[in-house]
Amino acid sequence: MSLAPGSTIGIVGGGQLGRMLATAAARLGYRCHIYAPDESPPAADVAAAFTRGAYDDLEALETFGGAIDVATYEFENVDPHAMAFLSRHARLRPSVFSLDISRYRPNEKEAAAKLGGACADWRLIDTADGLDRAVAAVGTPAILKTCAFGYDGKGQARVDSPAEAGAAWAAIGQTVAILERRIDFLAEFSILLCRASDGGIVYWDVPENVHRDGILHRSTVPAGAAVRAQIAPARALSAKVAEMLDHVGVLTLEFFATPEGPLFNEMAPRVHNSGHWTVEGSVTSQFENHVRAVCGLPLGSTALTGSRVEMENLIGGEADGWSAILADPAAHLHLYGKGEARPGRKMGHVTRVFR
Ligand code: ADP
Ligand code: MG
Q1: Span from the CA of 52 to the centroid of ligand 2 (angstroms)
Q2: Residue 88 DSSP code
């Protein structure tokens, strides 16, 4: 199936990822229809249509499915059952399977391990007994992470010593979680790939990612030597994951570079913050290639447009510095049109491409 320009792409989720997808789609002549529960989501400002509905409102999803030619999602914290229902009313790319695996930490880690990937040691916790057993097995320092709904370091608590485990589990609401060994990594990086509907895979250059307080701060391409040495095995694993999922669209896998090789952390079945630099830093951005894949079109070149690219997030009040950023003629400023600049909220980003 290939969908001609002029067709309508439905996007579940209305955040900045949907906004940048819709912008890329519009450039290719597609219309986007956003589905989200929010009153005025950032993506709706740049889309042809917007339906406000809960992610589990089956009636609204059915109507939405009837109004679009293909559906995708920019947010994975949605109920897979609702997306399975939507997929009966519109072709969904990537599939519910990709969503199901990547929205739940134990699923993604088990999937990676089955395909030969290594992860930081982890255990599932769903009872207080389980917590004690996990601490004994994993050791400290460790991190507790909720199995689902986590992003930007939310739903996580540090466990520096076994005595802290109970309080840490209470801090994340005693919900089903994993305890994961804390890794003293050399660097963090992500594999950004796009798999076309015919199974062909393209990769972007690998960004080295620096986080602050669990939130991505900066992505730099090319990555440093420690990361570059681990790209080949990380890409090989990523390709296996994409094929196992029969994934169509962008898929992102986050890794820790360690002296023993890459450790898989988590994956996202979608465009990713660590790929925002591709808008100006590569011939075809992650957003455009995702649109192309979803519409069954050939993918564009992922070649770099410069020798070095740097993307920095604007978190909370940092976006207030927009006029100083614009004073730098080399800076590409992106603001997401979010009203309130709450601390920790991603308000925009800035990309610089060096020739
Ligand atoms: P999120 O879904 O919030 O992105 P992550 O598991 O990617 O969750 O954690 C966010 C960040 O926290 C990571 O990018 C990394 O900087 C840090 N982190 C997470 N897990 C570990 C770990 N096991 N060891 C060291 N740092 C970690
Ligand atoms: Mg992450």
Answers
A1: 28
A2: T
